[in-house]
Amino acid sequence: VTRVLVTGASGFIGRHVLPLLSAAGFSVHAVTGRSSEYPPGVHGHVADLLSSEQQRAILEEVRPSHMLHLAWHVPPGGFWTAMENVAWLRASLQLLENFSSAGGKRWVAAGSCAEYDWTTGGDWKESDALGPSTLYGACKSSVELTAMEMGRTLSVEVAWGRIFYPYGPGEPDGRLIPSVICALLDGRPARCTEGLQVRDFLFVEDLARVLALLVSGTFTGTVNIASGFTARVREVVSEIGRQMHRPDLIELGAIPTRAFEPPRLTANLERLRSLGFQPKFSIEQGLARTIEWWTSDRSTGSPWADHKR
Amino acid sequence: VTRVLVTGASGFIGRHVLPLLSAAGFSVHAVTGRSSEYPPGVHGHVADLLSSEQQRAILEEVRPSHMLHLAWHVPPGGFWTAMENVAWLRASLQLLENFSSAGGKRWVAAGSCAEYDWTTGGDWKESDALGPSTLYGACKSSVELTAMEMGRTLSVEVAWGRIFYPYGPGEPDGRLIPSVICALLDGRPARCTEGLQVRDFLFVEDLARVLALLVSGTFTGTVNIASGFTARVREVVSEIGRQMHRPDLIELGAIPTRAFEPPRLTANLERLRSLGFQPKFSIEQGLARTIEWWTSDRSTGSPWADHKR
Known about the structure:
The structure is a homodimer. The termini of chain A are far apart. In chain A, strand 5, helix 4 and strand 6 form a beta-alpha-beta unit. In chain A, the strands form three sheets. Chain A has a seven-stranded parallel β-sheet, with helices on both faces. In chain A, strands 7, 9, 11 and 13 form a four-stranded mixed β-sheet that branches. Chain A is about 35% helix and about 20% strand. By secondary structure, the first copy, chain A, is of the alpha/beta class. At the A-B interface, helix 3 and helix 4 of A face helix 3 and helix 4 of B.
C-alpha cells in the first residue's frame, strides 16, 4: 500500500482532500498540531511540525512514500506579514529533507498566487517572474525555489501548486465569502469594498481534486491551480445576496480597498488543463453549496463543527 | 560606539572587511564556528550559528546595532548542490529575526550572481527576474526575498549585495585562480577549460570596500557587487601565466567546460556606482597582488596561514 502523509489535514483545504486520497487507493495519514476528527479510514497523528525532532518522529513512524504539505500560518487578517510564516518556511524545507531521509519519494506542496509580481497584469504563466510583495508570498516563493532544487539533489519528485482564490465549506469565517454569508444569515449588512478587483474563484472541492491528482500523478514542477472562472469581487458578493434573497444587505464601497490589493489575480491555465483537470463547479454552483453548508444544522457534531461559529 | 557583528569573519571575504569596519569607527565583533586570529581591536567570538540558541546567546552578549552576515557553506567543488546551504538558508533567516529581537537595526548580507537566470544573457540589473538554476542560488534567492520582507515587518534595514566573481589573497586554493597560481608555483601544468566564458572579476579588497560601505551607509534593497572589469576566463588565466613567466604551463582546453557554466556572468553597475563605489584594482593589478601573496613567505604565523597549503 502506498502511504501519503498530509500536513494541515484538518484545515480548510486539507479536509476536502483526505477522502479523495483514500478513494485513490492511498493509505492516508493526517498530521496536525492538535487532535482532530477525520473521515473513516484516515489515520490521525498529532505533531508540532515546527519541531524537527517531531517531524522526524512522525516520518519514521509513518514512513510515507508521498507527502501533501498544506500546513502553514494563515489566520484571516494578519497572515500577510506574520513572522510565523518564516518559521513555516524553515519547517517546510526541513520537512522535505526529513521526508527524503525517511524514504519519501514524492512531495506535493501548496504555493500561492502571492508569489507573482502583483504590479504586473495577472493571467500569469508559471514561467513568469516571481515577485512577491508580501512576507507571506516571499516565504512561499522561497520554499518553492529551494524545494525544486532540493528535489534534484535528494532525488525526490517535487510538485508545487500555486493556488489562487479558493472558497467553500470550511473556509475560516474571517475571510470574504464566509463573512458575507454570515452577515446575511444574521440579517446584518455586509460591508464590502467597491469590489472592482478581479479574482479567479476556485471551489474548494475542485481544488481538492487537483491536489489529489498531483499526489497520484507524476508531474514535477510548478502548476497554477485556479478555475478559469474569473469575476469581480462585487459580482460574487452580489450573487451571494441574490441567492440568499437579501441583496439589500450588500453594501459595496462601505469600506476602503486595501492599498496592496492588486486589481487582477488570474491564472494562465494551459499547464493545469494539460494535466487533465477541468473544474466541476461554476461560481454560482460553488456559492450555492457554500451557502447551504453555512445554513445547515450546525449542531451535528460533524468534523466541521469547529469551523463554524 | 556602534557595534557590528560579522559572521563568516575568518573567511576569504570576511577577513578583508574587518579592518575597514574598524577604520570606519565600528566596534567590530567577529563570530566564527571555531576560534580564529583577528586584526588588533577586533573582538573574536566562537558560536555555531546553525544553532538558534547559540545565535541568541552571541546576540545577547554583543547586542550589535549592525550585522554583516557572510557565513555560508562554500567549500570549493561541491557547494552548488550541498544540502548544507539549506541549513544556512534557515539559519540566516533565524539570525535576522534574533538580531532584531536583540535590538539590531541594520542587516547586510551576501547574495550571489547565482540568483539570476543564467539562461539569459548577463549584464543583469537588480530588477531582473530571479531564476536560480542551482541549489546554492535558490537558497541565496530565498534568503534575499524573505529577508527583504522581514525587514519591513521587523523595522530592520536590509541591504543585500549580489556578489559576482571575487578573487584575491585568501581565496581557497581549490578555486580557479589560486589553483592556477599554485600549479605554476610548483612548476606543474595548469589544466584549464577552453575558458571562453566571460566573468566580472572583482578583487577582494574592492569587494571589502563595498561591504564596508553598505554596512556604514543607509542603502536598503539589493545591489550588484562587481567591478565592471570583464574578461574571458582564458584571458585571466593567460595573464597569470604571463605575470609568473610560465605561459607554457597554461593548458587551455585540457578539461571540459562544466555543463551548467553560463557563457556570461556580468552585472549592470548603475546602482553600485550611484552608491559612490569605483574599483581601485584592475584585473592585472589584482592578479599581481594575489600572486605576490601566494609567493610570499608562508611561515610568518599570519592570520592567513591556514588558508595557504
